[in-house]
Amino acid sequence: MSAKILIDFMNMVFINFNIAKSIAIEEKRKKGENPIFEKKDIPLFYHTLLKKFNYYFTTYGNLYICMEGYNSLDWRRSIFPDYKRNRDKSKGEDEYRILKETFPVVEQLMTLYPTKILKIDAAEADDIIYTLSEKYNPTDTITIISTDNDLSQILNKFENVKLYNPIKMKYIDKHPNILLEKAIIGDKSDNIPGLSRIGQKTFEKMLIDKSFFRERMSNGNKEIVETFLKIIDLSKIPISIKQEILDKDENTEYNVFNPDELEVFFFNNKLKDLLGSWGRIKNDILLSLKENKWKWK
């Protein structure tokens, strides 16, 4: 039984951008400078992101990089037009525009590592991660690296899957009612409102008391919940999109590790810490690839 490591790529990008932003702002406060993240601070973001990825490559060897495709929100918005609309405003802010300029750079950097990159039009990274988990679960062990709790639903469907939260630095436990909870209570991060006047305590009572559950699901609420489940439940990915993901996986090879070009990038962006440790890190990655030393626990 082999291991597959699936990285929720944009999740990792935003995590490390926020880390870099916090560091930059704190340093500027200490110096009495304007505490904002600027374009000149981007090398700090590259440092935090690549330091984390270097750790993953030395630990696991090959990685799957699961990216958001073009028009990735469209099929869910065709069901619920307000899906993730709450994020539109932040995309007009200066910080996001600065970060967005790095997207082509970091995507290109991933091709220099031992990665299999999957980016499919109309598919979110979650769609790719679910489809791969379903495909490989019978024969392989799968570790998903992401802070997105939506992915914990996969743990309820497949036995050989684990979800690792890189911020909490721990594996996430199963949450058997996560789909119903998000559909009924709502999910602010995805702009899903849930049902009116139902919070956590009411939801927990609904799970215990079946007659109370039926009562709260009356007057059109059942239909609302079913609509939300269509976009929350990853098993409901359109068949055509799922097939494109499977085809792309079959036809995509792992990239060949290119340490020389990565070293040039470190040098050009004055990433001194990464450059100084690169000899050791490079050898550790090569060793990990050669021995496939990591075992799923």
Short overview:
With 297 residues, this protein is an alpha/beta fold.
The dominant shape is: globular
Task: Please outline the major beta sheet.
Answer: 6 strands, mixed
Q: What would you say the CATH architecture of the largest domain is?
A: 3-Layer(aba) Sandwich
β-sheet strand percentage: 5-15%
Question: How helix-rich are the residues, as a percent range?
Answer: 40-55%
Question: What's the CATH first level of the largest domain?
Answer: Alpha Beta
Q: Kindly state the mean pLDDT as a whole number?
A: 95
Query: How many domain regions?
Result: 2
What are the segments in which pLDDT stays under 50 over at least 5 consecutive residues?
A: none
Fold-level CATH name of the largest domain? Rossmann fold
**Count of helical segments?**
13
